[in-house]
Design goal:
Layout: E1 2-6, E2 8-10, H1 17-26, E3 36-44, E4 53-55, E5 58-61, H2 64-71, H3 74-83, E6 88-98, E7 106-115, H4 122-136, E8 142-150, E9 155-163, E10 174-182
Antiparallel strand pairs: 1-5, 1-6, 2-4, 3-4, 3-5, 3-10, 6-8, 7-9, 7-10, 8-9
């Protein structure tokens, strides 16, 4: 599993209805994309209490071939054409879990990052993070959650999708509205792979 996200920060007076309409008309195009486990079309806006306006899709890929096909194909080129080329963040997947609200469409996503201290062995840090993620994924209202790591910057990523009305902890991280979910191979995300630590 590979996690990927790019963030497009927009002007403070940007009409975020443009993003909503974009997702409403184009979001379905990845509903059957090969190699894609799950894509969440995320947005946050100043009008909703965010410090900025931002379009920030988040992906969980089952295969690098699927990710490459998207990045070098017309889908990502559409982003480049309309907004310029964003930095694409990516993490190696460690764990994916379906939560108690797995059958419900998510309305909110949270993203929390945590540095891996230099004095902690990487294997120990990952094992501890997996245990923490396993507990967090069973909170009431969790639709699904993923844990990943960026070994270039030694940063852990906790990403969670929440059902409407869920009590989201204050320390869950940055919050995003979920506008659409494309999940053609979601059922494959929790199958063991060579990069998954159990």
């Amino acid at each position: 599993m590979h996690a990927m996200q790019y963030e497009i920060t927009l002007p403070a007076d940007y009409d975020m209805e443009i993003i909503r309409k974009r997702v409403a008309t184009k979001g379905h195009l990845l509903d059957d994309f090969p190699g894609l486990g799950l894509k969440t079309y995320l947005m946050r806006e100043r009008a909703d209490g965010s410090p900025l306006n931002q379009y920030a899709p988040f992906y969980l890929w089952n295969t690098p071939e699927g990710m490459n096909s998207f990045l070098w194909g017309p889908g990502f080129q559409g982003i480049v054409n309309d907004f310029g080329r964003p930095v694409v963040q990516h993490w190696t997947g460690l764990q994916y879990e379906e939560g108690p609200a797995a059958t419900v469409a998510p309305t909110t996503a949270t993203r929390r990052t945590s540095p891996v201290p230099e004095d902690i062995p990487p294997g120990h840090a990952v094992s501890e993070a997996i245990m923490e993620h396993g507990h967090e994924s069973w909170r009431d209202g969790v639709v699904a959650s993923a844990l990943a790591i960026d070994p270039r910057h030694w940063e852990l990523l906790f990403f969670t999708l929440w059902a409407e009305g869920a009590r989201i902890p204050d320390d869950a991280g940055d919050r995003f509205q979920v506008l659409h979910v494309s999940a053609p191979e979601r059922e494959l995300l929790n199958q063991p792979t060579g990069t998954r630590v159990r």
